[in-house]
Amino acid sequence: MTPRKTKTAVPAGTAAMTEAEDSRDLISRWKGEAAELSYEEALQALDLLLAELQGDAVPLADLQRTILHGEVYLDRCSTLLESVEHAVVQLNPETLTPETDA
Prior knowledge:
Number of helices: 3
Structural class: mainly alpha
Mean pLDDT: 82
Strand content: under 5%
Oligomer: single chain
Distance between the termini: 88 Å
Number of strands: 0
Largest sheet: none
C-alpha cells in the first residue's frame, strides 16, 4: 500500500503575499546593483530594457517586472543627476567667483 498524498490547504492570499515578498526582494537586489553603477552604466542598462520593451521581446508575464527594473535604473540616473546639480557651483561672470544664494 502506497502512502496517500494529501493536499495541504494554503491560506487565502498566501500566494499573493509570497509574490509581493519576492518582488520586494528582487527590487531591493536591483537597487543594490544599480547603486554601484555610474550614470552612463545605469542609462545604458535602461536603454537596453527600453529596447527590449519596444521590440516586443518581453512576454506579457514579465512585462511588469521589466518595467519595475527599468524604474530602478531611472531612479539611479535621476539621483546621480540631482547630486551633480547640487554640486555645480555657479560663477559670477564678472568676477569668476562662486555666487552665493544669500
